[in-house]
Structures
1.
Amino acid sequence: GEQIDILELSQEYTETEVTLSDGGARAAARYGQPNIMRSVDTDTFLEFLAWYIAEGSIYSAKTANYRIKIAQEDDVLREEIESIINELVDYQYKNDRYVSFSSRIWADLLDALCGHGSEKKRIPELVFRAAEEQKQKFLETLIKGDGDRQVNSWRYTTSSEQLRDDVLRLC
């Protein structure tokens, strides 16, 4: 499928300085060990954004370790998240409650695009410019995280007014 360049996005939306390796295929924040894929499938990227918005958090330790955590206690959904993250980074940590990985580039990018903290999250503009099927899949992923489905309807719950408005706009 179509690929998205994570470094280009990072340069457009953040101030993070980067280090490249592997002929430019992998990247890290300056002086870091390059552990993220520079090029990511667009569908995978959008699906990851949806999981982050629904269930994600960013934690930055004083040691300049930036950790992204996607909470999910359902085994099947957690495996789905693991396989998505496998396409983004070389290494992830998982237990029965969440999947996480460390990356300053991803932490800064997610913060810039989607915000952080459940009251401040939003859907980034680039999602609204995506293809119809991609927007549909994005919405379905959000619902898997923070919603529930009935026979002919679904419900989505958020404490962010901006995210509420964005979900309505996506529909």
2.
Amino acid sequence: KLQKDLTEEQLRNLKDTLIVQLYDCEIQQNVYDLTLLNEDDNVKILERYAVDMIVQGLSRKTMKAYMWSLKRFFNEVNKNYKDIHKDDVLIYIGKLKSQNYKQNTIVNQRHNLEAFFKWAYDNEFIYRSPFAGVPRIKTDTVKKEILTDEELEMLRDNCKNIKELATIDLL
């Protein structure tokens, strides 16, 4: 009904806001099949993923970042990795945005989670990645200023020795 009154962008913003705001609300309907969270499954799959990262030769720092992202995500959604869906990912990313995390942090979180779920899919632990259809997050690129010929010449003129001159010429 709101499609007549709101633009497509306003509808998208409304949907995102509702998803984030209603995330902690419980909406009940008749449920006939409940899947119990088996925390051991999440722990075991993360241990297996860590072993594969070691085999791939990832650094400890990289592994720590991936594990931190995954543990945080699983604690937030409180679901078994097999039961994660696209909406869980979108809500999590929306919460990070609403908590004013920097754009690069959110991009890194998304990347780490997507890598895990791709690995789980490739190794047949899950049948579909929850990242299918989740849009990439655009980051602002910082455009570097290029020095003009006059500015480079001024730098060369102010060099005190050959080493400084060689450094400037490398630029």
3.
Amino acid sequence: FVGHKFTEAGCTADPSKVDALVGLERPETIKELSLFAHSSGFLRPYVLRFAELAVPLTKVINDALKECPKKGTKRTRAKAKKINWDIPGLNEAWVKFKDALGHCVLNSQIRPGWPLMTASYASKYAWGSFVFQVHPEERNMDLDKMRTAEILAVDSGVFKGAQKRWAIVDK
């Protein structure tokens, strides 16, 4: 499990691997951004709203490579192109994504007697969900007021194809 750290309290991302990613300079080329995006993928289980935060960055990569074959000179040239950081919201998306990577959650062990709970969200582009436990006294509180919440699992993804046209309530 490269990049993961297991303790008695639970499982989380290896802090040294996270620090290495968070410490990277802003990429200049599509290839550098693509390498960063792929390298950060192992953090998906530890970053709330990972897919949603990654959408603006992966859109830049996908837009640059959509007309290219999977291999060859044309793709190599496309990857070498400079990123236009003047695209509205792109730099802010970069900063938010890196900030989220630096705040990985600890996936805890199950606590007997504490209720299992779930929460989910969906936006126009992405979805996410997590399973967590809270002290029994907090089970009816609003999520943002819970202080003992311990996350057991996180998952997220990006809507593709026809899924993008679904109503938010169906996502």
